[in-house]
Design a protein that fits this description.
two-stranded parallel ribbon; 5-stranded parallel beta sheet; 227 residues; alpha/beta; 6 helices; 31% helix
Length: 227
């Protein structure tokens, strides 16, 4: 078989890969080693997208981070050195309409304004930096899609303040680390919210946009991205 092209001889852009099970051509979970090998051989960036897995909210809110940090360090070590790593964590669920990661009900309301949630997320971000040493860090996914539930009034403002407080804490650990949130492009454009990212300034080191061409969620094709 022909070898897979690599930068710079065969392409002029950089490409990152997530590491979900399935391998280069799909398949069952037991193909994960093939997936990791493929990523290590072909990626310019490894994307560890922690958007969905359970989060040890209780332990993090109490400052108990050692066991979780050990698991994160092992996850990072699977890929070895030499390839930049982008880690994204988020307090949001995958539907962007509430808190994710199986937040325990007895820790208080599942709102960004909840002090225990805020303390836990700040600890979450710090243990990620210490254990995984990422080259890029995302601290919330597709924030412009967040529509707070009725029991959490004003929660978008609380999300912004949580991000900024967490940003400052991780910057104290690694000042040169690029830190940001991500935005969903179609929602920004369709709802005329193009200036919403400015609310995260100046604590926004990159502008990161998600786009799903061909998906019902994203009617825009790459060539139609508005200037």
């Amino acid at each position: 078989p022909m070898p897979v092209p690599t930068l710079p001889s065969a392409r002029t852009f950089r490409m990152g890969f997530t590491t979900e099970p399935g391998g280069p051509s799909g398949g069952p979970v037991n193909t994960r080693p093939r997936t990791i090998r493929f990523v290590r051989e072909n990626a310019d960036l490894i994307v560890l997208h922690r958007d969905g897995p359970s989060v040890p909210w209780r332990a993090l809110s109490e400052g108990r981070v050692f066991g979780f940090g050990t698991r994160l360090a092992r996850q990072r070590a699977r890929f070895g050195e030499g390839i930049p790593v982008y880690v994204l964590i988020t307090p949001l669920n995958i539907f962007r309409n509430g808190i994710g990661g199986n937040f325990p009900a007895d820790l208080g309301p599942a709102c960004m304004s909840n002090p225990r949630l805020r303390r836990a997320f700040e600890n979450y971000a710090q243990v990620v930096v210490r254990a995984m040493h990422p080259e890029y860090l995302g601290l919330a996914a597709e924030v412009n899609m967040y529509r707070p539930p009725p029991e959490c009034p004003g929660d978008f403002d609380a999300l912004i303040s949580l991000y900024k407080e967490t940003y400052r804490k991780v910057k104290a650990l690694q000042p040169d680390l690029p830190v940001f949130v991500t935005f969903q492009l179609d929602f920004l454009h369709g709802l005329n919210e193009q200036m919403l990212p400015a609310r995260f300034l100046p604590e926004l080191d990159r502008l990161a946009l998600s786009l799903y061409p061909g998906n019902d969620l994203s009617p825009l094709l790459p060539g139609q991205i508005p200037a």
